[in-house]
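Reminder to self: tokens first, then the designed residues, so the page reads top to bottom the way the pipeline ran.
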């Protein structure tokens, strides 16, 4: 699993961004364009929104590439009460819940509440989706 995690700190919250897990679904950009602006450096400015607004938009990130750490000691992201899997047409499987990805040797690769798994076989970050389904023109049967 490839991982490059960048951190963007603000006064009330910090946002972490795992570059290798982002598939550019753009939920963040559409949800809070003042905070998440790919044309700006740095592209994430947590101080442009309240922590609760950040949390609501970050939880829409289907891959778990974005996470929030609050400065007020509030729990940042609630764990869903049940695990779900949604198969995206011509795309990944989106998982939500209390999740663990474990290797065949029993090593915990990742614990998270949101994960996107590759279905096309072309990801360079398996088992995670890296958006390669778009590049290869993946179509499900």
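Designed residues (141 positions):
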């Amino acid at each position: 699993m490839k991982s490059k995690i960048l951190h963007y700190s603000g006064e009330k919250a910090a946002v972490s961004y795992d570059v290798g897990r982002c598939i550019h679904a753009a939920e963040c950009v559409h949800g809070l364009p003042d905070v998440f602006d790919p044309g700006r450096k740095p592209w994430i400015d947590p101080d442009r929104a309240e922590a609760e607004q950040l949390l609501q938009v970050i939880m829409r990130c289907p891959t778990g590439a974005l996470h929030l750490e609050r400065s007020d000691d509030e729990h940042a992201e609630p764990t869903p009460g049940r695990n779900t899997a949604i198969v995206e047409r011509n795309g990944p499987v989106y998982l939500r819940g209390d999740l663990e990805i474990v290797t065949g040797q029993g090593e915990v690769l990742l614990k998270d509440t949101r994960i996107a798994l590759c279905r096309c076989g072309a990801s360079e970050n398996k088992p995670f989706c890296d958006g390669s389904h778009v590049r290869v023109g993946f179509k499900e049967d």
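The two ends are 28 Å apart (CA to CA).
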